[in-house]
UniProtKB/TrEMBL annotation:
Key words of the record: Membrane, Plasmid, Transmembrane, Transmembrane helix
Name the record gives this protein: DUF4239 domain-containing protein
Keyword Membrane in annotation: yes
This protein's record includes keyword Transmembrane helix: yes
One matching Pfam family: Bestrophin-like
UniProt xrefs under InterPro entries: DUF4239 (IPR025333)
Membrane spanning stretches: 37-60, 182-201, 207-227
Organism listed in the record: Paraburkholderia phymatum (strain DSM 17167 / CIP 108236 / LMG 21445 / STM815) (Burkholderia phymatum)
Length: 253
């Protein structure tokens, strides 16, 4: 389900729970609203609010870590590509075909990520993308170094390709993360209980309704950001592709 749809459903559930609490207040007998009853409900609501705050903070921290890891992966991959290209330049003109192939692979991957198309992003995890990288590695292995310097450069280039493949796979796998559905449903349920209790023991007026509306809106925005940061290659919150574009501008020079 689209992240915005999940956020809107969350907002509707939480805000409607608050309105339901305001409505139920008008139906409950007065002795259900005395100080003793309110005190018990406040204690229970406080416990649930504490658990909800902990889970919300955990999800935000986890989502931000996921976003940062993918962003670092893109930056490191771009740097490795530039360094690999310079190593091939130092090896000699025999590597021109490999350099052209490297630029094509990087340009294709950058275009797939920048497109935001789920089908294109899924192709990053496919065997075709991995085969292209492995073919590049085989081309490097097929080089015939003529001296010790070229042998060292060939070994270094092969090692850098292996590192780049590992970093890319790690980034793709990290970007494919998702928020556990059960945890998300539990969090929304807790928020509904909390806002329902807010409405139940608060006299209805315009100020109260606006406050509950803003609270429900804030929690739904938080959940939306969590879902977006857990998928950092598509959506509204994505990693910056500037390092990769800068690397492409340098390749082939």
């Amino acid at each position: 389900m689209h992240h915005l749809s999940v956020a809107l459903i969350t907002f509707a559930c939480v805000f409607c729970s608050a309105l339901l609490g305001l409505y139920l207040r008008t139906l409950l007998p007065q002795h259900h609203l005395d100080d003793d009853s309110i005190g018990v409900v406040k204690l229970a609501t406080g416990l649930i609010a504490t658990m909800a705050a902990l889970v919300l903070g955990l999800l935000i921290s986890s989502a931000k870590s996921s976003l940062d890891m993918v962003d670092a992966s893109v930056t490191r991959d771009a740097a490795n590509v530039v360094l690999l290209d310079r190593v091939l330049v130092r090896y000699g003109p025999q590597t021109q075909e490999i350099r052209d192939m490297l630029k094509q692979i990087v340009a294709r991957a950058a275009g797939q990520i920048a497109s935001g198309d789920p089908a294109q992003l899924k192709a990053l995890q496919g065997t075709e993308a991995l085969e292209r990288a492995e073919y590049l590695e085989r081309k490097l292995e097929s080089l015939s170094p003529q001296n010790d310097a070229q042998r060292r450069l060939q070994a270094r280039a092969i090692e850098m390709v292996n590192d780049a493949i590992a970093v890319r796979e790690m980034g793709v796998l990290q970007a494919a993360g998702s928020t556990p559905t059960a945890l998300l449903v539990t969090l929304v349920l807790w928020l509904c209980i909390i806002f329902g209790a807010f409405g139940l023991f608060t006299p209805a007026n315009t100020t109260v309704v606006i406050a509950l509306f803003l609270g429900a809106l804030s929690t739904s925005i938080a959940i939306f950001l969590i879902l977006e940061m857990n998928t950092p290659l598509d959506g509204m919150v994505t990693v910056s592709m500037s390092p990769m574009h800068q690397a492409l501008a340098v390749l082939g020079r």
